[in-house]
């Protein structure tokens, strides 16, 4: 009797780990097989080729980043500000953030990945608009706050500036408070 096959999900998970650690070029069948401690032959029982694995990796990222995050935010409930913060924490978790950043880099060179990223980002912006719209009546301000909140969530990972004796976490938290504050006069 032969050894049990490495489950499909393990290949996808190892591919996502390689993507997060080294970018799309690091997702190589031979390297994944070595990390999993198996031969690459088992890979072809699940995937026609590397591109098929990459598509499934993107599917997994999209499902975890949108469907699972929104489901958990909905289950946990709370007011709009609580939901926005929770969605941000889940989306930029230790697991998803490195994958998300690697996909953003990959999307710069691959139109199909860029379109997938656009779809995911549009879902994220939709949540921000809906939630911010519950306490901010001006549609232009809702859009501006949503954009700024999204830019804060992504951009804080690229900014190397110091913050005058404050920690990055303190400044990000304060920026979030400003973005999610009740508009004056309401």
Q: Could you give a short description of this structure?
A:
The protein is mainly α and 186 residues long. 67% of the residues lie in helices and 0% in strands. α1 packs across α3 and α3 (50-76) runs parallel beside α6 (111-132).
Structural overview:
This protein has 186 residues and is mainly α. It has one domain (8-179): Tetracycline Repressor, domain 2. The protein is 67% helix and 0% strand. The protein has helices at residues 8-22, 29-36, 50-76, 80-91, 96-107, 111-132, 139-155, 168-179. Helix 3 (50-76) runs parallel beside helix 6 and helix 5 packs across helix 6 (111-132). The longest helix has 27 residues, at 50-76. The protein starts with 7 loop residues before the first helix and ends in a 7-residue tail after the last helix. The mean pLDDT is 94.
The CATH topology turns out to be Tetracycline Repressor, domain 2
User: In terms of per-residue confidence, which ranges show pLDDT below 50 for 5 or more consecutive residues?
Assistant: none
Count of helical segments? 8
- H/E series, N to C? HHHHHHHH
CATH superfamily: Tetracycline Repressor, domain 2
Largest sheet: none
Q: Give the strand content.
A: under 5%
Spatial separation of the terminal alpha carbons: 71 Å
Number of strands: 0
Rg over CA atoms = 20 Å
CATH architecture: Orthogonal Bundle
Overall number of structural domains: 1
| CATH class value | Mainly Alpha
Strand pairing plus helix content: what structural class?
mainly alpha
Task: State the helical fraction.
Answer: 55-70%
Let me know the average pLDDT.
94
Shape: elongated
